[in-house]
């Protein structure tokens, strides 16, 4: 069977790394991000890398209608889903004292509300994907953060959203793993992408996790049998005490 995956935030960074690996493995892909031009260019690259079909859908994950369009585009083209990669996320630093409710709402919308909507909307396709591939089942992989596990000053809102994501996936496993749909939240420290560039004066890129580290971990998770449930994985940076972003 042709496997298919839906990947949010697939145009740059970790999402692009995962999308490229899945394209090389022959997955068909539905990809989304806000910048439509960049997404089209990435779609062409992914086709060249081996994806039989790539469906690019530009959307803002803070917009419920946008998330619905992404789900609809996948369902229009594919009858199953082998993997749902909940990767799009926003992160702004700021103490609790100075965080605005506007920032809180936007962070929760992209980092938590959209994943809930994507999981709900994709579940029928994921169950069908699991039934069609009993050796692998269907997988949900979400990019949480180490700050969702070990809270850190200055990352309160981001950390709270990422902690909620871990809880959400644990519940998903409780409800759906018997149907062959299993989920993992990956919680890394700083990864060398655009998102972490703001912290380069304190943490240089060579001390960060590499995008490929997250890609390798995701690849391994997608190859597990549906009998194995891995609710969360913490990936710390070497040279730290393991409890810091
Ligand atoms: N980098 C790190 O240090 C780190 C550490 C731990 C966890 N994470 C998590 O890993 C995930 C990926 O991070 P990254 O470092 O790869 O980020 P990135 O390099 O900034 O890329 C983010 C991707 O998400 C898309 N995106 C951003 N906001 C969006 C929105 N509102 N709606 C739709 N798409 C949106 C971006 O495209 P557009 O801008 O075109 O929309 C881009 O494709 C995030 O969930 C992040 O929280 C990152």
UniProtKB/TrEMBL annotation:
<dbReference type="Pfam" id="PF00106">
    <property type="entry name" value="adh_short"/>
</dbReference>
<keyword id="KW-0521">NADP</keyword>
<dbReference type="InterPro" id="IPR036291">
    <property type="entry name" value="NAD(P)-bd_dom_sf"/>
</dbReference>
<protein>
    <submittedName>
        <fullName>Short-subunit dehydrogenase</fullName>
    </submittedName>
</protein>
<dbReference type="InterPro" id="IPR002347">
    <property type="entry name" value="SDR_fam"/>
</dbReference>
<dbReference type="InterPro" id="IPR052178">
    <property type="entry name" value="Sec_Metab_Biosynth_SDR"/>
</dbReference>
<keyword id="KW-0560">Oxidoreductase</keyword>
<comment type="similarity">
    <text>Belongs to the short-chain dehydrogenases/reductases (SDR) family.</text>
</comment>
């Amino acid at each position: 069977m042709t496997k298919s995956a839906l990947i949010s935030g697939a145009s740059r960074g970790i999402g692009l790394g995962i999308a490229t690996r899945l394209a090389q493995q022959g997955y068909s892909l539905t990809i989304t991000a806000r910048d439509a031009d960049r997404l089209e260019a990435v779609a062409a690259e992914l086709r060249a890398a081996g994806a039989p079909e790539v469906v690019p859908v530009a959307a803002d994950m803070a917009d419920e209608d946008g998330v619905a369009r992404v789900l609809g585009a996948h369902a229009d083209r594919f009858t199953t889903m082998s993997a749902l990669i909940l990767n799009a996320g926003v992160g702004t630093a700021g103490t609790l004292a100075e965080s605005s409710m506007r920032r809180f709402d936007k962070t929760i919308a992209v980092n938590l509300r959209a994943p809930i909507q994507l999981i709900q909307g994709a579940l029928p396709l994921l169950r069908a994907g699991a039934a069609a591939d009993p050796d692998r089942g269907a997988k949900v992989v979400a990019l949480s953060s180490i700050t969702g596990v070990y809270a850190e000053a200055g990352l309160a809102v981001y950390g709270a959203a990422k902690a909620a994501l871990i809880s959400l996936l644990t519940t998903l496993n409780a409800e759906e793993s018997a149907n062959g749909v299993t989920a993992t939240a990956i919680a890394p420290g700083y990864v060398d992408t655009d998102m972490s560039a703001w912290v380069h004066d304190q943490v240089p890129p060579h001390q960060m996790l590499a995008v490929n580290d997250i890609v390798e971990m995701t690849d391994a998770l997608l190859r597990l049998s549906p009998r194995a449930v891995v609710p969360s994985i913490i990936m710390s940076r070497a040279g730290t005490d393991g409890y810091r972003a």
